Amino acid sequence: MRDPGEAEAPRGPAPGTAPPPVLALRKAGKSFGAVRALREVSLELFAGEAHALAGENGAGKSTLVKTLSGVHRPDEGEVLLDGAPVEFGGPAAAQEAGVAVIYQEPTLFPDLSVAENIFMGRQPRARFGRIDRRAMHAEATELFTGLGVAIDPGRPARGLSIADQQLVEIAKALSRRARVLIMDEPTAALSGNEVARLFNVVKTLREQGCAVLFISHRLDEIFELCQRVTILRDGAWVAGEPISALTPDDLVRRMVGRDLDTLYPKQDTLPGEVALTVGRLTREGVFTDVSFEVRRGEIVALAGLVGAGRSEVARAIFGVDRWDAGTVEVGGRRLPPGSPTAAMAAGLALVPEDRRQQGLVMDLSIERNIGLTGLKSVRRGPVISRAAERDRARDWAARLQLKFTRLGDAVNVLSGGNQQKVVLAKWLATDPAVLIVDEPTRGIDIGTKAEVHRLLSELAGRGIAILMISSDLPEVLGMADRVLVMHEGRLAAEIPRERATEESVMSAATGRDGAAA
Amino acid sequence: MTAVTADATPGGRSARGLVELVFRARELSLVAALAVLVLVTTAVNPNFLSGQGVKDIFLNTSILALLAVGQSLVVITRNIDLSVGSVVGLVAFCTGKFVSADPTGRGVLTALVFGVAIGAVCGLLNGLLVSFCRVPALVVTLGTLYVIQGLDHYIAHGQQINAVDLPPALLHLGNEGVLGVPYLPVITVVVMLAVGYYLRSYPSGRDFYAIGSSPEAARLAGVPVRRRVLAAYLFSGALAGLGGVLWLARFGTVVADPARGWELIVVSAVVVGGVAIVGGVGTVYGAVLGALLLTTIGSALVVLKVNSFWQQALTGALLLLAITVDRVLAVRVTRLLRKRSVRHGA
User: Fold this and answer.
1) Which of B214, B281, B333, B334 to mutate: most A Cβ within 10 Å?
2) Strand A287-295 vs strand A274-283: parallel, antiparallel, or unpaired?
3) A48 touching B, CB under 8 A?
4) Helical H runs in A232-351?
5) Which residue of A lies nearest to B13 if distances are taken between CA atoms?
6) CATH class of B57-319
7) Between the CA atoms of A497, A498, A504 and A505, what dihedral angle is there, to the nearest 10 degrees?
8) In a domain, A115, yes or no
9) How far is A212 from chain B (nearest CA, A)?
10) Nearest to B9 by CA among B21, B23, B1
């Protein structure tokens, strides 16, 4: 007797149906020590389709990417290439198979030319195995022409903007005839038109039959670019479906596993007296004639495109860079130029843009990092009191709802959102009158993002003056009492909360309308 | 040095032209510095440019330059080899002992093979420790510097090698030449050209630059990082071995550890020659020019009757100048390139 059910394979391509996915994971699991980073995750990438991978930080997205790209080997389950199980021995093997990864911050060789970066290890050869430089440059030029961008293949990679570096990475992927393009938060550091340019390139590749896996914290981007989405939560597969079946709210709910009350919980506060006054601040060639003030209890956003000079203004105010002309006053007292010590003493705090490089000492413990800014307050005589340091760290960790195992753990084991909380704690511990935050939620998952926003709002409610630099327009519009817009080193507009819209901010930021206010 | 003038390039140049000019400017400025040095010294003492004087400078440079070629390869991969001075000493003494035991049966070729093999073993040891055991290069080679030095003293046991015990052909190699050109500089130039060509024109040669420029990116690009670093040390060790045999051939009389302290002169020559100490940038031609410049300064000071104490101070000053120029240039070039990108993007 034959069981009719067994005759047909439950899976696999029947003749005449769609081809198998180019790259797939089947019930993959991966553990690091006791931590299960991935559990029974399945995912299928089809040619000509952009697939979004969504999930909070720490949900396992990076582990999944590394499993697909041959950096990790799954403990359970398998990776399928064209429907057949495959084991990548390392990143090189995955690249050989046509899987290319574009990281948020590409890893290029700064000293080598763009063309060499593209063809490293696979240079076109002339006689006797020599490198054929002319052919290499010609091929690189051809790749860039195909992508519709103008990058000189002969220039060194040093000094390229992050957007251009990503395009070099894409050119590299194309030169390898990559069939799968994995993009890990490629847009986090890009400005609006750079994102548009990148999307055009990706859409063209998708139409040419590339399979794309796209990771982003920006929901609008996911909806614009992708046809299908896989959602991870705590390392487990939550959902995988066509994107047309979802609304942004559905997506967020599945990522977080609960309803977000609101992402931008800005309380209304009555601004108090002026806390920070910046008068005609100029640093030659960087920014010119920047004047504004921030009052106690107010959140002022500094918006603009990347490179408009926002972070540079913040660095100058805090004294990291010197200024050439102008004044900075905190609580009516003038600050000397170029002295972070004086700025801190006057009650300024700066949470920098790049937390890994500038905000934290990654190998030091949580408590040490929090303790860095306030060594005086934890001192007993000339000696640092470990107990006082620990108490202070525990106190702030609790207030910011930091998720950690032990205060003695190095901060590099924390997720991005929790690292940002450590930076915030470090500066809040100095009890600042004015807090400058530069891109406070870049690369942070939605749940933590809401917490950071709530925290900023609370701080403003307690009378701290906050200057927030952000490239995230909804964040700017949702959090700020006033929006200052910079364009090419100058303040282009000052827009009050009521009149701030995406259009008014963007038109000032792109210089289309200098008099938006 | 004159390299600073390189930033006065007209704005119309392509970024490629600009950067290549800056790098070539390093070699050109070394040649210019050499020319000035030679002219001034000759003006004071015309004997400086006599046939014998020039020959001496080239002979004296050869071994240093040979070591600088090997060192460049290591430094380009963002590592360092401090053990070369000790290796030269060990090889010079051991090879001397080996060939003097049977001066008729053991000739030049045997000596070369023997010495290069010892050097290669030392390099292999360094390379294995650095690339596979992941110990920082500075510590590993500082350790092997002393270990090899100790070994040398143990083997020498207070004895010395005398020229009379060596096969005449070996001494001939170190002091004579063909058509008036001594063998030593010829060997160095051949090695330099071969390595320079390899580094520029072969994919595996470019790997060395890739590793020094960004080890992480190199790993992701599938460059066999550990194998290349191992190869760099192996090669540096082998060249130090060759240098040791040539040392023996040139001086004939060798005590234990004769090249003590040379590792730092070699590193200085490499850095003065424009190889970035953080890796990724530089050529062996620059390194050899650096060695030539340092040696010429030494000879010039003797001719100018300046106290030899000044030689070290001058070497140090030159090193600082080279590093400062590198730094300033790097910053300027980066800024220029950034500006170009901005203009491009607009």
Assistant:
1) B214
2) antiparallel
3) no
4) 248-256, 310-318, 340-345
5) A155
6) mainly alpha
7) 10
8) no
9) 20
10) B21
Structure tokens at B344: 């491009």
Indicate if A292 and A240 belong to the same structural domain.
no
Number of domains in chain A: 2
B222 contacts in chain A (CB < 8 Å): 90-92, 95, 121
- What residue spans define the domains of chain B? 57-319
Whether residue A435 lies inside any domain: the answer is: yes
CA A177 to CA A170: how far, in whole Å? 10
- Is A296 a domain residue? yes
Q: What pLDDT, in 10s, does the model give residues A370-420?
A: 877 765 666 666 677 777 778 878 888 888 778 777 888 888 777 777 888
| Domain of residue A246, residue span | 18-108+160-256
Instruction: Compute the distance between CA of residue B66 and CA of residue B73 in angstroms, rounded to an integer.
Output: 11
Computed from CA positions of residues B227, B229, B232, B238, in that sequence, does the dihedral angle turn out positive or negative?
negative
C-alpha to C-alpha distance for B25 and A414, rounded to whole angstroms? 47
Amino acid letter for position A16: G
pLDDT, tens only, B156-214: 988 899 988 899 999 999 888 888 789 999 999 999 999 999 999 999 999 999 999 99
* ipTM value for the complex: 0.81
Report how far apart, in Å, the C-alpha atoms of B193 and of each of A125, B232, B237 are: 20, 17, 19
A468 and A482 in contact (C-beta within 8 Å)? no
Q: How far apart are CA A510 and CA A504, in angstroms?
A: 10
- List the beta bridge partners of residue A498: none
DSSP class per residue in A27-76: EEEEEETTEEEEEEEEEEE-TT-EEEEE--TTSSHHHHHHHHTTSS--SE
Query: Residue A337's domain is classified under what CATH number?
Result: 3.40.50.300
Considering only CB atoms, which chain A residues are within 8 Å of B202? 129-131
